[in-house]
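Question (not urgent): is this output format expected?
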Amino acid sequence: MATAAVIWAAPPDASAQTRSLLAPQDVAPSELAPGTGRPGASIVYPAPLAQPPASPLAQSGPVVPAGRVALVVVARYGRDAPPISGGLIWRVYTANPDASGMFRLVKEERSATPTFILPPGNYVVHASFGLASAAKAVQLRSDTVREVLDIPAGGIRLQGRVNDVHIPPGQISFDIYPGSQFDTAERRPIAQNVMTGDVVLLPEGTYYIVSTYGDVNAVVRSDVQVQAAKLTDVVVTHRAAVITFKLVNDKGGDALANTQWTVSTPDGDVIKELIGAFPRLVLAEGDYHLIARNEGRTYPRDFKVINGVDGEVELSTRNSEAAPVPASAAPAAVAPAAPAH
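Got this back:
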């Protein structure tokens, strides 16, 4: 079976490679460490599929007590596709709601091919695989019932980079939305705050990723295509840099504490306000305006952020532009500065 291959004509700010979720040689278990269960991420471990000698539904039936019926279930990635070998949650519900309108949960299993021993009757069996799922109504009478549920799902694993340098985990997060970024309909994310390296399982189809590097304005949107039974690695490229601010009395001197900072665009739109001696921000490349306030005076400076060039912006209290802050003045709009050399 072929290993990673490009499957999506990705925009310049993202690249996507896909590999099979089925073949053990394609995906090492260490590469698919389970996620930490952050809210909305619904991350599970898609274990490689061992080649079974026969379909689980073709195996001999279980020993069933009198007055009970066996329900044997298996899920697969789609019609004529192999079974899903891990990461499944099975639930069996009553077919009819109770007096409160709720469908009562009868049993739950997390194995790949469970057998439910149930009283005769009508039920609904539901299987979830990450954010993908399928359900089917079943009728149990006297003989063992075997059911197959199709869940055409695949996985995506996300990471970011600036130029050829990978962004460390914890500095970047991803939100996943259904459909393309070019669709005009308003949608809610189906997975939020996904971290680097997490595997998210989704129904096959088109999605767009909103990647946020830092917490200011380094945001990239990228479309990706999820294929059934495939793990797609998505690498989002940001054009940004990490900038540190510093206000000193003399060039190269110690930073002054309790300094208030305002970062804005050249047009005066405030991007970020913060306080500290050495504030550090991730900023998208571009031109910015910066204002430092300390002991009733302001110190402005314009600067440029260059893609991939981390640096320091230093302002001096001896700046001839420094002026007292009017008591009635609103906070001045400021823009990011360029790294100092």
